[in-house]
Structures are given as structure tokens and as C-alpha cells.
Design brief:
Radius of gyration: 22 Å
Structural class: mainly alpha
Number of strands: 0
Number of helices: 9
Length: 299
């Protein structure tokens, strides 16, 4: 809480290096949304996701700037440092995804209406700049070796956000006609993705809310144990999913010729296999880094 008689507004929230970065994030977010809304164009699920990512990140960035400038963040019953860096990590991931997806679906180098193409290229460039700004914020605020900081600022904490985000991509692919219900083994994989996502999200929520210290057991040991179990579970999914989707006995090694672009179970299964291995690597790296830090939960 701020001291009685102190200033109500904190100019460093806007003028400090971190404050300038957040102002740039908001500026590039506004430019991106304006360009796309004016003549860039967006449609279908991919375009709506990009608009949601840009709009949601802009709204949260503006909220963070407002709360820090007015010092109202000290009145919130959450761990502000955990919240801001977790959001910066999530915003970076969402901007990376939108910056890749938008030009793939909406930018055509050979076009009849080149003015619209130019707007879309400019929007993609602005989105990339915002992504860099969020990434630089992570670099500035993450916990340095030998320093005591918020759990979400550690490598393990940042990896938790990436793991949860990758799980969301898996769920999206599962719902896109992946035919996961054909075999009990693939249903087991869905259970693995769901269980690990729920527990990872709970770890993030406990730290962001500042409630991790209320647990009656050592939080860091519980997280390490969970990370070890999640690694084993993802290892099982990394073995089972490709077998029951791409082995000739259950599926197909080659993409069926009848598959149409954007509506193909084989494509969804391939995406799931790739991101299963990505999350397996993330949990393994998380487990290794968890041995190198000693985290003291906030009371």
C-alpha cells in the first residue's frame, strides 16, 4: 500500500524503461487493430482469433498501465509481479501465433487489390513489433540467477505458461475433426492433455492470486513432483498417439488424397503429434530447471 500523503499518480509507470515498453505495446496493438479493421480484412476462425489476440492483449496492457500509473494495483489481492510477467509471456505467445497465422491466411503477394494487401502487410509488421516489445519485457523482468523474485518470473514459471498455451493448441486440434474417440488409447492421450493442463493452470492461478503460501505442504516440492509425473504422462502420450494415428494397422502414414485443406483428420492428428512432443520437451526442461531453483511461496 502507498504511504499516506504520497502522490496518487506514479509517473515512473510510464517513463521508466518498463513503462515505455508497455506504452509501445499498446501503441503497436492499436496500430495493428486499426489497420486490420480499416482495410486489412479478417474472417473465418483464423482471422477472428487474430483479432481476439490483438484486442485482448491491448485491453490488458492498457489496464496494467492504468493500474500502475494510479497505484491502484497495490489495492488488489493478487501477486502483481506474478500477474504482469505471466501476462507478458502469454501475450508474447498469442502475438507470435497471430503474426504467423494472419499473413498465411490473408496476405497474397499477387493481388488485384494491392491496397488491402499493403494494409495486411503493415498490420503483420506492427504485430511483430508488439511481439518483440512483450518479449523484451520478459527479458527485463524475469528472475536473474542468484536473485529472489516471483515464481512466474523464473524459467520454471514462464515454462508453465508456455505449457498451458501449447495444451490449448492441442485442444483446438482435437476439436478439429481429429477422431480421437476411435480408440481408448487416443482417449487416454486426451486425458493426459486435460489433466496436465488443469494442474498447470492451477499452479499459475495459485501464484498469480498469491495463494500458493496457504498450502500446508512445500509448494516447490509439490510442483517438482507434478512436473515429474506430467513428463511421464506426456511421454506415454508421445508414444501412444503416433502409433494409433499413423501406424498402418490403425491409421495411415501418408496423408489421404481425399483430404481437403482445412478439413482433414490426418492434419489435425499430425498437429497433435507435433505439439505433444513440444510439450514433452517443455516439461522435461521444466523438470531440469526445477532442480536449480529454490522458490519461497508468498505468504
Amino acid at each position: 500500500m502507498m504511504e499516506p500523503g504520497g502522490p496518487y499518480l506514479d509517473s515512473s509507470a510510464l517513463l521508466s524503461p518498463l513503462g515505455v515498453l508497455r506504452c509501445l505495446q499498446a501503441l503497436f496493438g492499436c496500430i495493428t487493430l486499426s489497420l486490420v479493421a480499416h482495410d486489412g480484412g479478417f474472417g473465418a476462425a483464423s482471422g477472428h482469433f487474430c483479432m481476439f489476440a490483438w484486442g485482448w492483449c491491448l485491453a490488458l496492457t492498457a489496464l496494467i498501465l492504468s493500474f500502475e500509473f494510479t497505484r491502484l494495483h497495490s489495492c488488489l489481492s493478487i501477486s502483481w509481479d506474478n500477474f504482469t510477467i505471466a501476462f507478458a509471456m502469454l501475450a508474447t505467445l498469442m502475438y507470435v501465433t497471430a503474426t504467423i497465422i494472419y499473413p498465411i491466411y490473408f496476405v497474397e503477394l499477387e493481388c488485384d487489390q494491392c491496397q488491402s494487401r499493403n494494409f495486411r502487410i503493415s498490420a503483420t509488421s506492427s504485430s511483430a513489433l508488439a511481439c518483440i516489445a512483450y518479449a523484451v519485457e520478459i527479458h527485463l523482468t524475469r528472475a536473474k540467477p542468484g536473485q529472489t523474485g516471483a515464481y512466474m518470473a523464473t524459467t520454471s514459471g514462464l515454462l508453465k505458461v508456455v505449457q498451458a498455451y501449447v495444451a490449448c493448441i492441442l485442444f483446438g486440434a482435437l476439436l478439429s475433426g481429429s477422431e480421437y474417440s476411435r480408440y481408448p488409447a487416443t482417449q487416454w492421450c486426451v486425458g493426459v492433455y486435460s489433466l496436465c493442463f488443469i494442474v498447470t493452470a492451477l499452479v499459475i492461478a495459485l501464484n498469480v492470486s498469491g495463494r500458493a503460501g496457504l498450502l500446508r505442504c512445500p509448494f516447490d516440492r509439490v510442483v517438482v513432483l507434478y512436473t515429474f509425473l506430467a513428463t511421464l504422462l506426456y511421454l506415454s502420450a508421445a508414444v501412444i498417439w503416433p502409433v494409433f494415428c499413423f501406424d498402418n494397422k490403425y491409421g495411415s502414414m501418408e496423408r489421404p488424397a481425399s483430404c481437403s485443406l482445412g478439413d482433414c483428420a490426418w492434419d489435425s492428428q499430425l498437429i497433435i503429434a507435433i505439439f505433444t512432443y513440444i510439450n514433452l520437451i517443455l516439461y522435461t526442461v521444466d523438470l531440469i530447471y526445477s532442480q536449480k531453483i529454490r522458490y519461497i511461496a508468498e505468504p
